[in-house]
Amino acid sequence: MEKDSKDDGIEGRELREIVVPGDVLAADDALKSGVGTYKEKEKIYAAQLGVKSVRAGYVNVVPLSGKYMPRSGDSVIGTIIDIGATNWLVDINAPYPAPLHVNEVPWKVEFGDTSHYLRVGDAILVKVLNVDETKRIQVTMKEHGLRRLTGGQIVEVASSKVPRVIGRNGSMISLLKDYTGCRIFVGQNGRIWVDGEIEGIVSVILAIQKIEEEAQVMGLTDSIKEFLEGMSEKKS
Amino acid sequence: MRRNLNYGFLLGGMNMDEKKLINEKNIRLDGRKLGELRPIKIEAGVLNRADGSAYIEWGGNKVLAAVYGPIEAKPRHIQNPTKAIIDCRYNMAAFSVGERKRPGPGRRSIEISKVMSEALEYVVFTEKFPRAKIDVYIEVLQASAGTRCAGLTAASVALADAGIPMIDLLPACAVGKVEGQVVLDLDKEEDNFGEADIPLSVVPRTNEIVLLQMDGQLTIKEFEKCMEMGMNACKDIYELQKAALKERYAVFTEE
Lengths: 236, 255
What we know:
Chain A has helices at residues 162-166, 171-180, 198-213, 220-235; strands spanning 18-19, 24-26, 32-33, 37-40, 43-46, 50-55, 58-63, 75-83, 87-91, 98-101, 123-131, 137-140, 148-149, 153-156, 183-186, 191-195. By secondary structure, chain A is of the alpha+beta class.
């Protein structure tokens, strides 16, 4: 139903009109109704508070706020909130809990043996397998790179700010990695895992907070670069 | 009946025959014209912990609205597998009125919560969040007639602030009849001693009515006049709502 907006960085574009629900976005057939919009009597309206963006013939509203809504294929960071005999319940910061079935983990788990592998409170890297029309979510760990997270820290940002933390083609995230030497993983649900030297972690967390505050400011990557330079100078 | 009960302590012994609510020049007690709103100030995103929030000052009314969700509805049996439920709670603070209000939900606030939930449910795309629940808390800090309209106006701003998809914002306004004349946005005295009071909420673009209640008596002609006046006022309030939301996020677009 909804299209991918992962790389929907609004950076560097002139048009940054803020729209509220009910605003008219387009009145003709030239454009198609995209994410965060609805169509009524040949007109397209904003359904959500956000920034209007036109790309590939679609009008979209890039949200400025709102809960994370899982889509299949999203890589997210979850925490175990409950254990069953054949599954774990994972909180992935969505409105709904996500069960992780024993068939979807890379280990051979005996019936009732689930708590030997993952315990309540453990942080895991998972991928959203499937979301059905009643928003029942399935997640998996059976893919390369998906694992239990040990060490490091997790910070949370609003899920609408995730594209800004990643940056255009991952520019922001590689900037953070280059300057601090940290390992960083950004989940689509707004949870970010950071591991490395403690000073590095501190810089990354402060930088992420800055990104979240200034998410809509032009030239964000440059100002973060400056910020990180300032941090490393202070250290030496 | 309620009106009659209120007479004594609200007036403080004032005699109604001596005081007119509308003078010969069609100016009301607080200096407004018949079709004039009280001053309205809306601010979005005032609470940090809620997913969305709004604060409104409407004449002497001060109302806070906060939105949480969508989140999975619990217990399980209240879930609707096709759409989200909107749970609105209207509450008046003990200190919101002259005589201390006994805290907690009463007959009146339960009713207002219900009609507000239904109004909001119409504009929110509830089918996007099956099995979920959206909580809307409306706290009246200071009341001066028209709190349900102020509350609903603030609640829809708070919902938009929370990033919840909806077809439109919902402005609301009261109209009524005072001393034989149709007036807009009744204040406390007019509400207590007037002849009729109609809280009204419309979807501004389509003029669909989502909330309509009436207290008192009107002729059909007067009623029609009320509706016209109210719908026009709702459009003015709608502009204020939009401005409040845009202002909140304009901070980010500067520089």
